[in-house]
Amino acid sequence: MASALSEKLSRIVKEMRGQARITEANVADMMREVRLALLEADVALPVVRDFVARVKEKALGQEVVGSLTPGQVLVSVVNRELAATMGQGVADINLAAQPPAVILMAGLQGAGKTTTTAKLAKHLIEKRKKKVLTVSGDVYRPAAIEQLKTVTKQAGAEWFPSTPDQKPVDIAHAALDYARKRHFDVLLVDTAGRLAIDEALMLEIKQLHATLNPVETLFVVDAMQGQDAINTAKAFKEALPLTGIILTKMDGDSRGGAALSVRAITGAPIKFAGVSEKIDGLEVFDAERHAGRILG
Ligand code: GDP
């Protein structure tokens, strides 16, 4: 990952050659650049502050041993902390439940929930060989139900009908019942979003969660939301026991700082990244690779 460090960081590392100890000045120089790199990547300010404070504390206690330079030791502290915040490796979808394994999709309107529900259906069909049913609990926007129907068809999954006059909890019961009887492996539940967080929305999704007892509760968030992603993430984390995150629209966000922000706030692993509007535009998220990209 060290190769992915920005030019500025590399310069600082070079300047620190030949010193036997890490000084406060070394740490301050390095942290100034790390802070800038994270802010340029649009990582939320409170997350940047916490991160820098943690690295500072750890770096000052470090000894420089063997053939290492203070700069190299500092870089490894930064990288270790980044990996600890970001998570390591990849985290796949958990389907360890009595079938149907229920996956609840949560997030704001426009985040990409419906598109991602279909992308995930396709992934589970193709990569995990599962029989997948989708259903929409968005009774406020008939167009959203129709949209899910269309994209589910593209994914090669089956769609369970719902109508705007139903209660989301009743839709959930009916879909669950159907999925059990027809031996579906997975039930993907798309939910209503709002343009901003509101209490009614949170109450409704909590009720859905209690009804469905999902094995995965995935928070779908637009990577382009940048600094705002943190408030949305906080609200959803408070309402639901999130098991994973899907970051959408990563194709439009060059540095991907939202990943670090959302991960730091929720503590939940980022499982997938949406990389296009198309049905196959979903990639398994590689935390380490992404961590390198954030520091640019
Ligand atoms: P929902 O309201 O959360 O269900 O959001 P939608 O699934 O309707 O998506 C909102 C818009 O974002 C649509 O125009 C999607 O095509 C687009 N979208 C979703 N995911 C991605 C992505 O990963 N990349 C890009 N470029 N567009 C996306």
Automatic annotation (TrEMBL):
Its EC number is 3.6.5.4. Residues 269-282 form the SRP54-type proteins GTP-binding domain. It catalyses: GTP + H2O = GDP + phosphate + H(+). It is an enzyme of class 3 (hydrolase). GTP binds at residues 107-114, 190-194, 248-251. Keywords: Cytoplasm, GTP-binding, Hydrolase, Nucleotide-binding, Ribonucleoprotein, RNA-binding, Signal recognition particle. It is found in: Cytoplasm. Involved in targeting and insertion of nascent membrane proteins into the cytoplasmic membrane. Binds to the hydrophobic signal sequence of the ribosome-nascent chain (RNC) as it emerges from the ribosomes. The SRP-RNC complex is then targeted to the cytoplasmic membrane where it interacts with the SRP receptor FtsY. Interaction with FtsY leads to the transfer of the RNC complex to the Sec translocase for insertion into the membrane, the hydrolysis of GTP by both Ffh and FtsY, and the dissociation of the SRP-FtsY complex into the individual components. Belongs to the GTP-binding SRP family. SRP54 subfamily. Composed of three domains: the N-terminal N domain, which is responsible for interactions with the ribosome, the central G domain, which binds GTP, and the C-terminal M domain, which binds the RNA and the signal sequence of the RNC. Part of the signal recognition particle protein translocation system, which is composed of SRP and FtsY. SRP is a ribonucleoprotein composed of Ffh and a 4.5S RNA molecule. This is Signal recognition particle protein. It comes from Hydrogenophaga atypica. The gene is ffh. The chain holds residues 1 to 296 of 459 of the full protein.
